[in-house]
Write a structure and sequence with these properties.
Length: 165
């Protein structure tokens, strides 16, 4: 049975499981938890991304396998998200702050962002390189000094660029 449960601290009423179903699921602390609902401080990672697989040595579709919330039950930008390659099924992890979520796609306008070495880029974000005069999608990240991003350009192919200098 579907019921209406008020969200504490807010004036809205949200659809959720019945209280009996909530107790069976063990979601007593978050009775409004239901697929499709996004808490204000939460983060919704993309279900599927085109990522560079280090084992296949190609850019392939990757599926979200699991989310590891670092702050308890709330999945936010500080959580870790594990994706698996659609070909070899090996996994790669990203922090939420390195992924382009549903909220970020809404904020991004139609034109790609200009690439600058001092900028921070998200996996899935479309950028434009001024010297290549080409658009590309960020398909991977390497942590180091400096941080590097892997970008799949339309004309130039896969390139490794620096970020956060």
């Amino acid at each position: 049975m579907i019921g209406m449960v008020p969200l504490p601290g807010a004036g809205r009423v949200l659809e959720a499981c019945s209280r009996a179903e909530v107790r069976l699921c063990g979601l007593q602390a978050m009775p409004w938890a239901r697929k499709g609902f996004v808490m204000p401080n939460s983060f919704t990672p993309p279900e599927q991304l085109n990522l560079y697989c280090r084992f296949c040595k190609k850019v392939l579709p990757a599926q979200l396998e699991r989310s590891i919330a670092g702050t308890g039950r709330t999945v936010d930008k500080e959580s870790t998200f594990e994706y698996f390659c659609s070909k070899c099924h090996r996994t790669v992890c990203f922090l939420g702050k390195d992924l382009q979520g549903a909220e970020d796609k809404v904020q991004q306008d139609e034109s790609p962002r200009e690439y600058l070495a001092k900028g921070h880029y998200l996996v899935g974000e479309v950028i434009r390189h001024p010297s290549f005069k080409d658009n590309g999608t960020v398909v991977g990240k390497d942590i180091g000094s400096p941080n590097r991003i892997l970008v799949q350009f339309e004309k130039k192919g896969l390139k490794k660029l620096v970020e956060n200098i």
